[in-house]
Every structure is written in structure tokens, then in C-alpha cells.
Amino acid sequence: MSETLRNRLFLAIALLLAALYLFPLYWMVVTSLKTGSAMFATPPSFWPSEPQWQTYAYVWESRAVGRYLWNSLVIALGAVVLVTALGTGCAYVLARYRNVWIDIGLFLILMLQVLPASLMVTPIFVGFSQFGLLATPRLAVILAIAAKAMPFFVVLVRSTFMSVPAELEEAGLVDGNSRVGAFLFIVLPLARNGILVSAILIFMQAFGEFVYSKSMIQAAELQPASVGLNSFMGPNTNEWNNIMAFAAMYVGPILALFVLLQRRIVSGLTSGALK
Amino acid sequence: MKTMFSSLRDGRGFDVGLVAFPMGFLFLLSGLPLLYNVVMSVQEVDMFSLGSFARPFVGLKNYATLFSQPETWPILKNTAIFVVASIAGQFLIGFGLALFFWNEFPGASWLRGLFLVSWVMPGLVVGAIWNWILSGDFGVLNYVLRSVGIISGNIFWRSDPNFALWAVIIANIWLGISFNMILLSVGLSSIPKDLYEAAELDGAGAWARFRTITLPMMRATIGAVVSLGLIFTLQQFDLFAAITSGGPNNASNVAQYWAWDLSFRQYDFAQGATISVIMIVFVMIASVIYVRSTRQEVRG
């Protein structure tokens, strides 16, 4: 078998596998463009013959998608800012030193990373209600998400800082920088990309967060899109084209971000999780 | 005062300061809730005592009540099935894909990256899509299975007690393929290629090479991926909320969903906390295994 033939065969199989894997996403878009009757046709059509683009405008208006997405954005940005502000310095120190305290700190952080949100939400909810934090529910959710996401961020960013040579920082200190100066003007700029990718990953997670928001935010005007989508799906719903349009509008920005930054996200994820 | 300031700016204080704030934050928002969870599990908590800290101490009564309920063991069994089946499915498919994309061909790394897409999608969106795909009368999965002749009548994935749990497992496998495949790909790419060349010269077939080189070299990675799978699977909540809500009649309920359901649907916070404590112990054990299998990497 010649080299080109082999390559083409592999490429064909790979495309087939990718198509199979991505079918749920395709089905979401196709369903969102179908009419109410085409949606329940047997056999189902795999191509929208008369795409109903107005479904999107209708759902956007009637389900207040803009408001839900805005709340998701507020929550996600708040969590990212908090996590980045607190986690970056922590990751730097954990990367710079090597002693038993650092090992203990890392171990604690790894343990906190694995606590399931649906189990932690009970004590967090009761505690927050006792301290009156539930009066500002979006802030409460931001705090809870930040605590959940920070360990992951620290682990990812720590591996970035480890790849910044310590000699550069020492040279900066010899040249008369203070520790703060060396950190801000030498180390941080070199680690910028890793921090950015990790922040984007945290943003994507927080943008889709559900458990905390569902449990802590009662007012519909403050709920994020995940809760909005959930309340849209009743047990006996038949509005699947509208629901899929909602889902498509929700996931669209994330998919765009993912496609734009795919290479960096993949390398960022893999370096943090295992290396 | 002046020495303290200069230490913060230029000495040990700088490091301590950088670590103290995040650690304090994590202690307040993860450590304390963890302890509070244990405290609540030995207290009597109802809607009236929710706001006060001094609640009646009841010892292990909540644990006794929990295990005397008829649904407890079926739900724990569901949790075990969910975990084992999800991990097995994710791992086998993920490993298969990782091995396939390990072959070098144009576009391989780009196409492989596409498989990460489920990792970044909101869980509720994944749940909504699979809820519709698995729909009984009009679901596309039933249609496909019918047309290739695997089933003759429609399966009511979400409402049939025999299939409800499997509906969530299918969605969870799809969701988990991504990280299994990516992490296993990283492990595969770190195996030196000349090992295979040497084995091939010695006349080892493809299966022998896989069994004697790939699997042993991948042992640490596989351990890490499987224990990460366990951790992620025990965190899975959104799919249950979006596909079956634990129903019908708890047929697809698992411990992590049940804990939430007891607290926030039935307002039985003490029982919710009790299950949380038990499950958190399990997750902690899994994460110790995970940390041990990646210890070399963590220490750098």
C-alpha cells in the first residue's frame, strides 16, 4: 500500500469517526431548524429542507435568552477574575519551591479539586444562608464556583510557572528588582499564555455551571442559561425545536471560542492534567 | 512595621502573602463547608433550625435512618453500575480512538482536537441534546437501531425503569470520551518509538507489541485516567438533572443526585449532608489513588 493511499484511508476513517462523534451537535442544529411537524416525522429527515431560522428569534424573545446569557456571563467573568487574582500567586509559589510544606499544600489542593459540587452544595447553601450571602445570589454562586475551580487553575498554572527558568528571575533580582518587581515584570509576562488558556478553561466551565446556580438563585431574572434551559425542559415537553435553538444559542459562543483556541486549549489541558 | 512591609515586598513575606490569601479563601469556602457537612450529618436539621448554629445533636441517627430506607441500597447499586459502566465505556472508546490517532497521517492532530468538544460544553446542553436523541417515540437513536434491525420496538429510554440509568450512562460515555482520549494520547506519545522498531525486528506481531510494550508503558497513565474517570463520574450531576431527574421511581437515581434531591427538593438537609459525607469519603479515596499514580509528575 502506497504512502498516499494509506494516508487517505486513515483520513477517511478519522473523518467518519469525527462525524459520528459530533452527530449530537449536528442533530441539535438540524432539529432547531425543523418545523413542529417535521420534528416528529418518521423516518426523521437528516437535513432541514425548509430551515426555520425564525425559531431562533422567537426563542430569543419568548425565553429571554439574552438575559440568561448575560447572567451566565456575569457569573463566569466574576469567577474567572477571582480565581485568576487569587490563584496565580499561589501557583507561582508552589512552582518555585520544593519542600515538605509545598507537597502538603499541593496535596490539599488536589484533594479539594475532586469534591463534587452536588455534594458540597448542601453545606455551602446552609452556611451562605446563615451569613446572609443568599441575598446576593449571583455573588454567592461566583464564590462557590471560584472555590471549586481554583484548585484546577492552580495545578494548570503551576505547570506553566515551572517552565519559566528560575535563572531569569534571579538575574532580575541581581539587576536590582524587588521580589514584587521580578514577579510582575519578568515571571508574569513569560507565563502569560498559560495563565490566559487556564483562565479561558475556567471561564468555559463557569459559563456552563448548573448545580450551584440552580440551588442558590431563586429569582428568574438572575438565573444563568443553564438553569433557564433546565426549566425549559419539562417532563412532557414537545417543543424540541425551540429547546434545541436555546441550546444552540447557549453553546454557540463556547464552541466559537473553542474552535479559535483549539490548539492552545488542548496543549494547556494535557500539560496540566498529567505532566 | 517597616521590616514587615519590606519583607512583603522583597522577602519571605512575599511568598507567604501570595499563598495565604488563596489558601484562606479555599479554607473558608471548601474546608469549612466540608467540616460543616460532617457536623450537619450528626444534627437534626429542619426548616426552622436551618438559620441557627445550635441544633440538637443526634449522634449517628441520620446514618441509621439513611440505611433503613428501602431506596438506599438500590441507589448505591445504581451508583456503582453508573460508575463502572461509564468508566469502562469511556476508557475503551477513548483508548481505541487514541490508538487510532496515534498513527501519523495529515490532519491527525487537528481532528483529534475536535474530540475535546464535549469537554467544554455545558452539561445541561449535552443533557438536553441526549434527552431528545433518546426520546422514545421520535428519538433518532431508536430510529437508527430500528432501521439496522437491532430492536423491533421502540425503547423508552427515559421512562422505562430498565433503561433509564443506561440512558444517562450513554450520555456520560459520550461526554467522557474526550478527556480519556486526550490524556491517553499524551501517554502514548511519550513511549519511545525505537522500542517498537526493536520489537518488530525481533518478530513481535501487532498484538504482542501492544501487550508487551504499550500496556506496560502506559500503566501510570491508565491508572491516572481511570481514577480521574472515577472522580469525574462521581461528580456527574447535570446529565441526571437534564435527562431523567433520577426517575422513574429512583430507577436512575445515584448518590450524588439523591443528596441534592433530599436537600433541595425534600428540604431534608440532614439526610442530604449524610449522603454527602459518605460519598465524599469515596471520592477522597479515589483522589488519593489518582495523586499516587501521578506523584512523579506532580513533584516534577
UniProtKB/TrEMBL annotation, chain A:
<keyword id="KW-0813">Transport</keyword>
<keyword id="KW-0762">Sugar transport</keyword>
<feature type="transmembrane region" description="Helical">
    <location>
        <begin position="182"/>
        <end position="207"/>
    </location>
</feature>
<feature type="transmembrane region" description="Helical">
    <location>
        <begin position="140"/>
        <end position="161"/>
    </location>
</feature>
<feature type="domain" description="ABC transmembrane type-1">
    <location>
        <begin position="69"/>
        <end position="261"/>
    </location>
</feature>
<dbReference type="InterPro" id="IPR035906">
    <property type="entry name" value="MetI-like_sf"/>
</dbReference>
<dbReference type="InterPro" id="IPR000515">
    <property type="entry name" value="MetI-like"/>
</dbReference>
<comment type="similarity">
    <text>Belongs to the binding-protein-dependent transport system permease family. MalFG subfamily.</text>
</comment>
<feature type="transmembrane region" description="Helical">
    <location>
        <begin position="68"/>
        <end position="94"/>
    </location>
</feature>
<feature type="transmembrane region" description="Helical">
    <location>
        <begin position="106"/>
        <end position="128"/>
    </location>
</feature>
<comment type="function">
    <text>Part of the ABC transporter complex MalEFGK involved in maltose/maltodextrin import. Probably responsible for the translocation of the substrate across the membrane.</text>
</comment>
<keyword id="KW-0812">Transmembrane</keyword>
<feature type="transmembrane region" description="Helical">
    <location>
        <begin position="9"/>
        <end position="29"/>
    </location>
</feature>
<dbReference type="GO" id="GO:0005886">
    <property type="term" value="C:plasma membrane"/>
</dbReference>
<keyword id="KW-1003">Cell membrane</keyword>
<dbReference type="GO" id="GO:0055085">
    <property type="term" value="P:transmembrane transport"/>
</dbReference>
<protein>
    <recommendedName>
        <fullName>Maltose/maltodextrin transport system permease protein MalG</fullName>
    </recommendedName>
</protein>
<feature type="transmembrane region" description="Helical">
    <location>
        <begin position="243"/>
        <end position="261"/>
    </location>
</feature>
<dbReference type="InterPro" id="IPR050901">
    <property type="entry name" value="BP-dep_ABC_trans_perm"/>
</dbReference>
<keyword id="KW-1133">Transmembrane helix</keyword>
<dbReference type="Pfam" id="PF00528">
    <property type="entry name" value="BPD_transp_1"/>
</dbReference>
<keyword id="KW-0472">Membrane</keyword>
TrEMBL record, chain B:
<feature type="transmembrane region" description="Helical">
    <location>
        <begin position="80"/>
        <end position="102"/>
    </location>
</feature>
<dbReference type="InterPro" id="IPR035906">
    <property type="entry name" value="MetI-like_sf"/>
</dbReference>
<keyword id="KW-1003">Cell membrane</keyword>
<feature type="transmembrane region" description="Helical">
    <location>
        <begin position="163"/>
        <end position="186"/>
    </location>
</feature>
<dbReference type="GO" id="GO:0055085">
    <property type="term" value="P:transmembrane transport"/>
</dbReference>
<protein>
    <submittedName>
        <fullName>Sugar ABC transporter permease</fullName>
    </submittedName>
</protein>
<feature type="domain" description="ABC transmembrane type-1">
    <location>
        <begin position="76"/>
        <end position="290"/>
    </location>
</feature>
<feature type="transmembrane region" description="Helical">
    <location>
        <begin position="269"/>
        <end position="291"/>
    </location>
</feature>
<feature type="transmembrane region" description="Helical">
    <location>
        <begin position="114"/>
        <end position="133"/>
    </location>
</feature>
<dbReference type="Pfam" id="PF00528">
    <property type="entry name" value="BPD_transp_1"/>
</dbReference>
<keyword id="KW-1133">Transmembrane helix</keyword>
<keyword id="KW-0812">Transmembrane</keyword>
<keyword id="KW-0813">Transport</keyword>
<keyword id="KW-0472">Membrane</keyword>
<feature type="transmembrane region" description="Helical">
    <location>
        <begin position="12"/>
        <end position="36"/>
    </location>
</feature>
<dbReference type="InterPro" id="IPR000515">
    <property type="entry name" value="MetI-like"/>
</dbReference>
<feature type="transmembrane region" description="Helical">
    <location>
        <begin position="217"/>
        <end position="237"/>
    </location>
</feature>
<dbReference type="GO" id="GO:0005886">
    <property type="term" value="C:plasma membrane"/>
</dbReference>
<comment type="similarity">
    <text>Belongs to the binding-protein-dependent transport system permease family.</text>
</comment>
